């Protein structure tokens, strides 16, 4: 308890410091960086990756099929708005899948790749491509199947759980409780108001990396001083479904996004 209080004091102090120094609005700064890159390189990294993803999408797998043979939730080959409706339950696998895991399913079950042949960077590039068809679309996930409701409940539990030496959880940093005390921190409220769900997949100019929501959540587990759950694992999917549901109705400004 004592430890936690001191830790919180530390966080509030640092946040206060950042605000006092008039730290630039992260959204404005991202826009500026984007413009800068566009002027120097002539093309955005996001556009390059989407192009790579498109090539991979249209590449034939060992079965001779391209990814156009796969159903991302709205029917075979339909990409328009599909990513904005994930995660969802799929009858063919009997599982709730997000964009990343559905891409894996497609590559293994339809295209005939072995799991060890699939590179993470390829999955992310394909995710960028598929997500690009959801720009301007509202997030619309549902809790229709019992599997979806169970996973949502797990996600909610994980989001509010506290653990580790610091005794903190996702909610410690990400609900508006912090916002009230430390001023406006648009990136910290991930449950709807800041529409955080709509920021990922994204290109991060601070470290020149491409991340999906799975990578974002894993990095935040690092903040918890907690072992990171594996990619495609249940805790990640559960948190994704929980946060996506909280963001229902938010319109995707641009996928893939361009963030710090
Ligand atoms: C110690 C504080 C802290 C904890 C604990 C934490 N995060 Fe984060 N999280 C951050 C910060 C800071 C950022 C923003 C990083 C940036 O803007 O570069 C962030 C970003 C995010 C984002 C992206 C938000 C956006 O608008 O782009 C999501 C989603 C997220 N975290 C989810 C989680 C989940 C899920 C957990 C629990 C497993 C968690 N976080 C735990 C500090 C934390």
Automatic annotation (TrEMBL):
It comes from the Bacteria. Keywords: Electron transport, Heme, Iron, Metal-binding, Periplasm, Signal, Transferase, Transport. Its main location: periplasm. Residues 52-139 form the Cytochrome c domain. Its EC number is 2.8.5.2. Gene3D superfamilies: Cytochrome c-like domain. InterPro entries: Cyt_c-like_dom (IPR009056), Cyt_c-like_dom_sf (IPR036909), SoxA (IPR025710). It is found in: Periplasm. SUPFAM superfamilies: Cytochrome c. It catalyses: L-cysteinyl-[SoxY protein] + thiosulfate + 2 Fe(III)-[cytochrome c] = S-sulfosulfanyl-L-cysteinyl-[SoxY protein] + 2 Fe(II)-[cytochrome c] + 2 H(+); S-sulfanyl-L-cysteinyl-[SoxY protein] + thiosulfate + 2 Fe(III)-[cytochrome c] = S-(2-sulfodisulfanyl)-L-cysteinyl-[SoxY protein] + 2 Fe(II)-[cytochrome c] + 2 H(+). Heterodimer of SoxA and SoxX. Belongs to the SoxA family. This is SoxAX cytochrome complex subunit A. The gene is soxA.
